[in-house]
Design a protein that fits this description.
Helix content is 76%, strand content 0%. The protein is an all-alpha fold. It folds into two domains: 1-175, no CATH class; 193-240. Helix 5 (59-71) crosses helix 7 and helix 8 (127-141) packs antiparallel against helix 9. Residues 191-241 form the DOCKER domain.
Length: 241
């Protein structure tokens, strides 16, 4: 069964069904005790099948980051702590999987998930979420095994980037009745991620939705043309077109 689950680096129909069961437990309301056991089970899954999350397609890593981050905003402090530690465990395993070089896959998916959560979850970025970011930073600072690597500074950089996104979003909230100012803020955020095509696309898509909502269809079309150019450039660099 393990060999079947590992087929194509874990990107196969059987693993997808297994992962969807785990994901379902996170997406449904659970008791505190049940959730803690789900977090423990997820640690085992990540440890046994790292290639599923850190190699090939990023869909499973992305889905997991999104659900864990939601629990980083939980009203229960114990659940926030467990979720923060699980997210740190995911980052740390990604770092180990690359031979202690980086955790780019998880880093990117966390930022994308935060950007999506801003629109989906009320109150994301408040005190509870900030506390979870601090827990993640503390885990990195107290991890002696990776003391002489770049990991802790990379984690600090990630949490700093998340706070930047949250601050920019707070500014957007203030100007939500000023479409032009709102789009300017969105554009600045998209521009700041020029080196990361996936994130730049996320914010350009968001800009396009605002333009469509305001009836500015030609501006929305320009955003989508820009996205198409980004995708084409990325595929060309990868030698896929």
């Amino acid at each position: 069964l393990k060999n079947q689950l590992l087929t194509d680096h874990g990107h196969n129909p059987l693993m997808k069904k297994v992962f969807d069961v785990y994901l379902c437990f996170l997406q449904k309301n659970q008791s505190e005790t049940a959730l803690k056991n789900v977090f423990i089970a997820l640690r085992a899954l990540i440890y046994k099948f790292p290639s599923t999350f850190f190699e090939g397609r990023a869909d499973m890593c992305s889905a997991l980051c999104y659900e864990i981050l939601k629990y980083c905003n939980s009203k229960l402090s114990s659940i926030r702590t467990e979720a923060s530690q699980l997210l740190y465990f995911l980052m740390r395993n990604n770092f180990d999987y690359t031979g202690k070089k980086s955790f780019v896959r998880t880093h990117l998916q966390v930022i994308i998930s935060v950007s999506q959560l801003i629109a989906d979850v009320v109150g994301i970025g408040g005190t509870r979420f900030q506390q979870s970011l601090s827990i993640i930073n503390n885990c990195a600072n107290n991890d002696r095994i990776i003391k002489h690597t770049t990991f802790s500074s990379d984690v600090k950089d990630l949490t700093k980037r998340i706070r930047t996104v949250l601050m920019a979003t707070a500014q957007m909230k203030e100007h939500e009745n000023d479409p032009e100012m709102l789009v300017d803020l969105q554009y600045s955020l998209a521009k700041s991620y020029a080196s990361t095509p996936e994130l730049r696309k996320t914010w350009l898509d968001s800009m396009a939705r605002i333009h469509v909502k305001n009836g500015d269809l030609s501006e929305a079309a320009m955003c989508y043309v820009h996205v198409a150019a980004l995708v084409a450039e990325y595929l060309t660099r990868k030698g896929m077109i």
